[in-house]
Amino acid sequence: MSAEKLTVARSPRAMAWERRRGAFGAFCAEFARSRSGMIGLIFLLVVIVIAALAPVIAPAWMLDVTRLLDSPRFAPPSPEHLLGTDHQGREIWVRMVWGAQVSLVVGFAATAVSMIIGTIVGIAAGHFTGWVGGLLMRLIDFFLVLPSLILAIVLSSVLQRGVWTIVIAIGLTSWAGTARVVRSQTLSVESRDYIERSRVLGAGHWHIIVKHLLPGVLPLVLANTTLTVGSAIIAESTLSFLGLGDTTTQSWGAVLKNSMDVSAATSGYWWYVLVPGIAIVLVVLAFTLVGRAVENIINPTLRSR
Fold first, then answer.
1. Residue 99 · residue 159 · CB < 8 Å
2. What end-to-end distance do the CA atoms of the chain give, in Å?
3. Which residues pair with 85 in a beta bridge?
4. According to the model, what pLDDT value does residue 1 have?
């Protein structure tokens, strides 16, 4: 009897949070059974920890060329120089550790900007009808047909160079794909009976969007986010490789640009090119593995296969 009274006394919000905790626990348990997803997640956690501990692992003075006058230039990988040195005598592994900070920050921040814009525009385009929905769809189509990388290059060239300029350039040019996916999911959620009941009971647009549509599309946004981070890291590396990044900060794209400037690929300094290239490939692959695992859990069609 007391248990029944306790159940009745619980508020709807507490019961909703309990259901969400249970769903999150089930999601974590399902994700843990994905071998590829766990491999990608563990690798990403290691990279994030290394990037966070960069000042401890590789003190900043190790990048100061004035204190590396006796360090050999273009030294190949060896026990003394784990990943070799660059054209200024700096250790490649030190530049990679510090570059991981910029690449990950740009990847996560640009993806956050892209996901926020894409989610808001996608939900609005799917929820509102008439000229508002039509106008938003034309806006989405306009950004879809524009080459996002070229538009990001233009923005990076016009705005002041810096890390956050690259974040803004990538975020403002890569949201259209997310918006189109979110719109499709919004239309699917809109067709369900509880949305119609909410309208009949007098629920407004804000209530329907926040209480029903947003929770319905968030799992899809989460899966899309993990896949988009890898694309943002590639875009950042491309912009830095083209010389549009901040030359005062280390990034994996900047290391590749420096290697191109000294013709490392044709001069036999293979480590100068391979190390940052392999790092970018592995991190993007890890994000892809995590994203696919999340997508398989969230999408019932893929899960049944």
1. no
2. 45
3. 91
4. 45
Instruction: Give me the residue label for tokens 């970018």.
Output: 280
Residue from 300, 227, 269 nearest 86 by CA: 269
Which position has the token pair 């994000």?
287
Residue 45 binned pLDDT confidence (cut-offs 50, 70, 90):
very high
Across 295-301, average pLDDT: 71
Cα 96 to Cα 259: distance, rounded to the nearest angstrom: 13
CA–CA separation, 108 and 59 (whole Å): 24
DSSP string, the chain: -HHHHHHHHS-HHHHHHHHHHHHHHHHHHHHHT-HHHHHHHHHHHHHHHHHHTHHHHS-GGGG-GGG-TTSPTTPPS-SSSTT-B-TTS-BHHHHHHHHHHHHHHHHHHHHHHHHHHHHHHHHHHHH--HHHHHHHHHHHHHHHHS-HHHHHHHHHHHSPPSHHHHHHHHHHHS-HHHHHHHHHHHHHHHTSHHHHHHHHTT--HHHHIIIIIHHHHHHHHHHHHHHHHHHHHHHHHHHHHTT-S-TTS--HHHHHHHHHHTTHHHHT-HHHHHHHHHHHHHHHHHHHHHHHHHHHHH-HHHHH-
Backbone φ and ψ for 91, nearest 5 degrees, come out as -70, 130
Question: What's the token pair of residue 114?
Answer: 């892209």
Mean pLDDT estimate for the chain? 82
Domain architecture of the chain: domains with CATH: 30-59+92-304 (1.10.3720.10)
Amino acid, res. 203: A
